[in-house]
Structure prediction request, 731 residues.
Amino acid sequence: MDKNLQQSLKLHFGFDNFKGNQEAIIENLMEGNDTFVLMPTGGGKSLCYQLPSLLMDGTAIVISPLIALMKNQVDAMRNFSEEDNVAHFINSSLTKTAIDQVKEDIINGHTKLLYVAPESLTKQDNIDFLRTVKISFFAVDEAHCISEWGHDFRPEYRRIRPIINEIGSRPLIALTATATVKVQQDIMKNLGINKKTTKVFKSSFNRPNLYYEVRQKDENTIDREVIKYIKQRPGKSGIIYCLSRKKVEELAEFLRANSIKALPYHAGMDSQQRNDNQDAFLKEDADVIVATIAFGMGIDKPDVRYVIHYDMPKSLEGYYQETGRAGRDGGEGECIAFYSDRDLIRLEKFMQNKPIAEQEIGKLLLKETQAYAETSMCRRKALLHYFGEDYKEDSCGNCDNCRKPKKHIEAKELLCAVIETALALKEKFKPEYVVTVLLGIRTDEVVSYGHDQLECFGSGNDEKASLWNAVIRQAIIGKFLTRDIETYGQLKVTSAGKRFLNNPKPFNIVVEYDEDELEDEETTEIKGSGASAAADEELYNMLKDLRKKVAKKLELPPYVIFQDPSLEAMATTYPISIEELQNIPGVGAGKARRYGEEFCALIKRHVEENEIVRPEDLRVRTVANKSKVKVSIIQAIDRKIALDDLAQGNHMEFEELLDELETIVASGTSINIDYFLEEVMDADSIEEIYNFFKKEESSDIEAAFREFGQDYSENEIRLIRIKFLSEVANG
Prediction:
């Protein structure tokens, strides 16, 4: 790792280490190379241009489509720095006087980062001004807006490259959180990015902390269901997306009538009211924002705990980006979507006045959304496949399909039937037409083509359409079939599919149980303690209250002051000076000096009043520095959460949890797992293994397994060893 870059990261942003590809991206840009970044929401895209803008000569120009997002990011940059004029934006919300002040700061070399809306970039006076400015690089944020295949197509984005050429060519970095292969190609083509010389950095689109669930939508009960869901999560921030502005207003009013602090947000509102509502959400004066799917919010709030889709969105890219606003701090994030066929019909109606080619693109995107909503396989696997990523696991353990039992069936013959039918149709038809032929349905189209005379016509009429659709979906993910984007989704057979047909092998698929096979059962509740990872919960809550007070006084969102993980670290390590505060993750020198005094004073007072000993290496602090997860595990054990539930909640195998517990007790921390042992083992067995370790004065797991391997599992032996080490070594 480049030491200078790491020191700059710590100085300006308070972080000890880069995330994922951040360092390589920054190095590539600073070397003067064009750069293309695909990184999921919450992955740290903004830092990829914010840090180099501070280190390079001149002003970086960031082209961003959302005025609200510009304001948030400028506020965040100013709070990382001690200088307010380090970042500015130019858009339609500014007066001429304000724009003149921005230009003066740029000319004087104070401004390192300038956010510009694409509409503002096209104005000739702004172009003329920027031609006189020393520009370090151009950054195109939300780059998917350039593509007609993207979920937020903005025609003015197509003019970016010609305008950059007019201003003066500089290195270009394009960034997006959602892009299929087709959209990636569109972005590079329209921005004039050379495929051969431009380095593409693609991070995994997997957000393991997000839970995905699709619920059947019942118009008569959905409002009550939403109310119940929110009230089970008091004080937590959430976003609800609706299809229409009218529904946004109605639902926000309904939530307020039920004592939920909710506000609406859509493009039809007065801009001042929209900004006020967004600020209320950021400052935690409102818990819920209800917004239209069509209007992207650009919310940069790290602690959104749930995203509800009241209506299904028109594309999986839109869905992924909107759900990505949950859990950006790495904490819990629940993504609940309500689905009905009526939503899709309404969305198709919206497209009727558009050009035919655009309608075809829109319909194909809707089919992808429908396939995701109706699939019985792992939702994470299906979602990542859509973005060209191969998720190796069959089950993620953190979506409704993986948490609820599913039926697996052998579909070798079914897949052969699909492949044979697709080939008989010369690979020129979409999946739904292939299913129609398999079912033997004589539509006008089928008869006109003469496909009712094919040998495969009706060969699958003893199965349901839903089963054939499931076979096709999972065969596409298995790479036996593919949908050709260029021909708007025609079903093609891959070389692997042709080999399968010649030499069929087992093909196991996941399907829903038939209704008569299912017993009535309540929807699985999502388990989540919601507790922080702070060792001192009382201090953590006091710090949160102080943060809210400071934020209110400064009219800033609380997370701009300090994010939750920083407060958790403060409530674990008790920093009482500005110097100590700078060692807290996420607290740079500028932020420590700007806000630190009151926080250090509060911590010092708390330490003195409670006679807290602050040794240089607190046991729990050692654990916390190694991993925030370990602190949360210790707290969960204090609350007597079953270890198997704890493993599942942290997306671990049980053996991985045991590894963590062994590390914790080895570091000198005592934990009490008696409550769990008493549930899974009898007292005599516990005593027998415990006495072995006591008598042998050895904690060698291999020796114990040789002694008891016939009678006890390795996990049982490891559990007793953890108990022994905790009580004897650390007691």
